[in-house]
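Researcher: Go.
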Amino acid sequence: MNPEPVTDWAQLPLSRTTVDRAAELRDDVELVERLLTASSTRVVLVRGASLAVRDAHGSSVPGALVLDLVPGAEVVAVLATTQSELTAPHAPGWLFLGTDDDGAYLALVLPAEADEDVDISGVVPARAEDILGRGRRFENLRDAGHLLDARDAGLATTAVGVAAWHVRALRCEHCGEATRPARNGWSRVCTSDGREVFPRTDPAVIMAVVDDAERLLLGHAAHWPEGRFSTLAGFVEAGESVEAAVRREVREETTVVIGDVVYRSSQPWPFPRSLMLGFRAHAVTTDVVVDGVEVTDARWFTRDGLAADLAAGRVLLPMRSSIARGLIEEWYGGPLADRTG
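Model: Structure:
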């Protein structure tokens, strides 16, 4: 049976976007300074994998959110009157996200946890990161991605992904010296030899494995909460095609042998830097033996069986922002109860 078109593969939660990245502007060394003087510029506040958000009043989507965008002038005023390491030479600083008809978008990366330094008088000095984050609600992109509209989902995914790369690229991978941000957040340059590096993405395959009886194979990873099951996934190895990676990962983790492999869609997954390539894979064997290391349980599910397990609370599904959820619901033929883990 062919999968029902219940998943809109062109509109996966973290693949959606409406903003032009305007990459041709990244080499402009005065870009951020100029944009911050424009009244239409808005700033996305990023803290780890979380972003400042607020309720989307008037939306027809239950629980809908919007990014809590800050006018550029407001951020500049805070930075000018407080202590801050946000724009220190080696900090991620400003990230240029792009433009649309409403203006330009920047991201400012806040520290995940702020240290409370005390001055000689015993007072904790006011810092820009504290003031900018005060009173704002931060939600993890994994949990909130599907609740944002296309514009905000694209901005949020890009901001989290590039910010995560900066945190891991503070030192030159060749000589170990410090690096500094360049190209308005889209590269880093070694302060010793001038070598330039760019954000990288690691390709990973994720697959709905289905047998001749239309059962779906779901696995439980060792580090997941009890009862959580999802589609199998793994990274593509050097010198390997994505189709070969699908077959290798399924066999390594469950001993199931895969025949035909059909590509479905892709989605960025910036935790910290994956690109998830989604597939539907046909199983030619059905005996399951888990590796016991990465995967500690794997089972075949019928549609009725999965629905019953969800209703009884025996199984938790991946969050709606993941491509895994789309693969599962395409196989199922429609939306499943929103019980996630």
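Model: The domain at 23-114+127-197 is CATH 3.90.79.20 (Nucleoside Triphosphate Pyrophosphohydrolase).
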